């Protein structure tokens, strides 16, 4: 009599032994002559080795590159001065609100010389929709005066010069360096901080330490686009309060999977911007974004 076939229980493959971990080189600054943030990425939490963390982080970056091949800075700008001012204005508000506000600002004050000599009350009135408009007026007029007095009306292309400008920190400086001058930098905004911690790339909370920790996982050449992809993902899918885990393309690589909605149909309803069929944040987005189905944002007061 033949024996009944025995059903085999699937067994997970054993994790191969890890190779000896070699300490990575310290993250260096994106701009020549600039000292790097001193903290280097610590050993990853849990049982994940340093080598495994680097591999997983880089795989996430590759996956995001496929999902967002059109990732870009979501502030409208036509020159370094416009990008610098728009980035300063983006504090405590959305890029969409800044993009809806800056056309009137730059139409009236197109150059640092114009903005430096402006009537503060008139600038405040234009910037009112962005919030904290008095402090922002002081910053953008102050940086404009400094550009005129110390840099010949031109935006400097060095980190150490940019961070001396009123209202400009490392985050703003790296946005300008990476997108106006093509110099690699990591933009550690609120979305970036949230996601890299969810992904266990680092447990740091200080932006400068996060910058150093994440920079140590990737080659410099990836820093600027990595920032765009992570921020795109944070705005569209991996939201702060309720991430759309069930619609996330990198769910298998995410240690935080399950913190949000895991049902695929319910998760789809949480998607924002082009993933949810809604306009993006730029009034004048890149053509690649439009070709991929993205839609421009509405002007201020429309819809």
From TrEMBL:
It comes from the Bacteria. InterPro entries: DNA_glycosylase, Endonuclease-III-like_CS2, Endonuclease3_FeS-loop_motif, Endouclease-III_FeS-bd_BS, HhH-GPD_domain, HhH_base_excis_C, HhH_motif, Nth. SMART domains: ENDO3c (SM00478), FES (SM00525). Binds 1 [4Fe-4S] cluster. Keywords: 4Fe-4S, DNA damage, DNA repair, DNA-binding, Glycosidase, Hydrolase, Iron, Iron-sulfur, Lyase, Metal-binding. Its cofactor is [4Fe-4S] cluster. [4Fe-4S] cluster binds at residues 238, 245, 248, 254. DNA repair enzyme that has both DNA N-glycosylase activity and AP-lyase activity. The DNA N-glycosylase activity releases various damaged pyrimidines from DNA by cleaving the N-glycosidic bond, leaving an AP (apurinic/apyrimidinic) site. The AP-lyase activity cleaves the phosphodiester bond 3' to the AP site by a beta-elimination, leaving a 3'-terminal unsaturated sugar and a product with a terminal 5'-phosphate. This is Endonuclease III. The lineage of its organism: Bacteria, Bacillati, Actinomycetota, Actinomycetes, Kitasatosporales.
């Amino acid at each position: 009599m033949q024996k009944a076939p025995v059903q085999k229980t699937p067994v997970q493959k054993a994790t191969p032994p890890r190779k000896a971990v070699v300490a990575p080189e310290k993250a260096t600054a994106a701009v020549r002559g600039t000292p790097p943030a001193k903290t280097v990425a610590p050993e990853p939490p849990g049982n994940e080795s340093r080598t495994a963390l680097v591999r997983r982080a880089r795989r996430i970056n590759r996956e995001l590159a496929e999902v967002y091949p059109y990732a870009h800075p979501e502030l409208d700008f036509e020159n370094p001065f416009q990008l610098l001012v728009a980035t300063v204005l983006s504090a405590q508000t959305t890029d969409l609100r800044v993009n809806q506000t800056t056309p009137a600002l730059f139409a009236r004050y197109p150059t640092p010389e114009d903005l430096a000599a402006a009537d503060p009350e008139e600038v405040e009135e234009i910037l009112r929709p962005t919030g904290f408009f008095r402090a922002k007026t002081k910053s953008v007029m102050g940086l404009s005066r400094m550009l005129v007095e110390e840099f010949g009306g031109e935006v400097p292309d060095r980190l150490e010069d940019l961070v001396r400008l009123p209202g400009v920190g490392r985050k703003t400086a790296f946005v300008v360096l990476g997108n106006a001058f093509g110099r690699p930098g990591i933009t550690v905004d609120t979305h970036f901080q949230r996601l890299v911690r969810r992904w266990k790339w680092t447990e740091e909370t200080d932006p400068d330490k996060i910058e150093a920790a994440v920079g140590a996982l990737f080659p410099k050449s990836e820093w600027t686009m990595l920032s765009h992809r992570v921020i795109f993902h944070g705005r569209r899918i991996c939201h702060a309060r309720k991430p759309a885990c069930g619609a996330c393309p990198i769910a298998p690589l995410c240690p935080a999977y399950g913190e949000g909605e895991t049902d695929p149909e319910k998760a789809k309803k949480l998607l924002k911007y082009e993933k949810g069929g809604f306009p993006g944040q730029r009034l004048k987005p890149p053509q690649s974004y439009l070709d991929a189905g993205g839609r421009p944002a509405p002007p201020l007061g429309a819809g």
